[in-house]
Specification:
Blueprint lengths: L18 H14 L4 E2 L6 E2 H15 L3 H6 L9 H13 L2 E6 L8 H12 L4 E9 L3 E8 L3 E5 L6 E3 L3 E2 L8 E3 L5 E6 L1
Parallel strand pairs: 8-9
Antiparallel strand pairs: 1-2, 3-10, 4-5, 4-9, 4-10, 5-6, 6-7
Helix pairs in contact: 1-2, 1-4, 2-4
């Protein structure tokens, strides 16, 4: 028997901070359904992979790639959602829209929940949110109930209970939601 160290392999995503990129990818897929394959290209490439490449290219072109990988993106509205909007227009011939949920973080949880509930009640809608407190993480909300955010998330989180959320202060025990960094997305068919 050899004297091997018991070392767990490093998982993709465990030390990079690309959750902002993945939140845009996941929200786009929630909006349009399964990505199409571009058969016009010599090599078949899925829209998912093309969009990922375009998002990474946008970060690199704007000297934000190192920050995005090593420290996370403070606000994904640095053109990332616009790259997805162009991808949906180009591949699906559909119009994807974005708007900020709130202009300020001075919002109570009831107002925040109501805004997301109203937006997500429309078909072909998704929301990108920033969480802090327990973790700092961008994620996609694909549905909402009276007491739960239902996620499409790159880490595998499926839902967050409303009772574990707050908007007015940060706590390491709860998820802090940031109203002014919440993006409402929709697609016109």
């Amino acid at each position: 028997m050899t004297d091997e160290k018991c070392v767990m392999p490093i998982r993709q995503g465990s030390i990079d901070h690309l959750c902002g990129v993945y939140s845009v990818l996941n929200a786009t897929e929630v909006l349009i359904g399964k990505y199409r394959v571009d058969r016009k290209r010599k090599r078949k490439s899925s829209q998912r992979k093309t969009l990922f490449n375009d998002l990474i290219g946008h970060l690199a072109k704007n000297d934000l790639l190192k920050e995005a990988i090593t420290a996370s993106i403070d606000d994904i509205d640095i053109g990332l959602i616009d790259v997805a909007i162009e991808s949906v227009r180009s591949y699906q011939n559909q119009k994807m829209r974005k708007r900020k949920a709130f202009e300020t973080d001075d919002v109570i949880l009831d107002e925040y929940w109501e805004q997301l509930t109203q937006h997500l009640s429309s078909p072909d809608s998704a929301v990108i949110i920033l969480l802090s407190g327990r973790i700092k993480h961008w994620t996609c909300v694909k549905a909402i109930t009276l007491d739960t955010l239902i996620l499409s998330d790159s880490t595998g989180m499926k839902k967050i209970a409303r009772s574990h959320c707050m908007v007015d202060t940060e706590s390491r025990d709860l998820y802090t939601l940031w109203p002014a960094l919440t993006y409402l997305l929709s697609v016109e068919k």
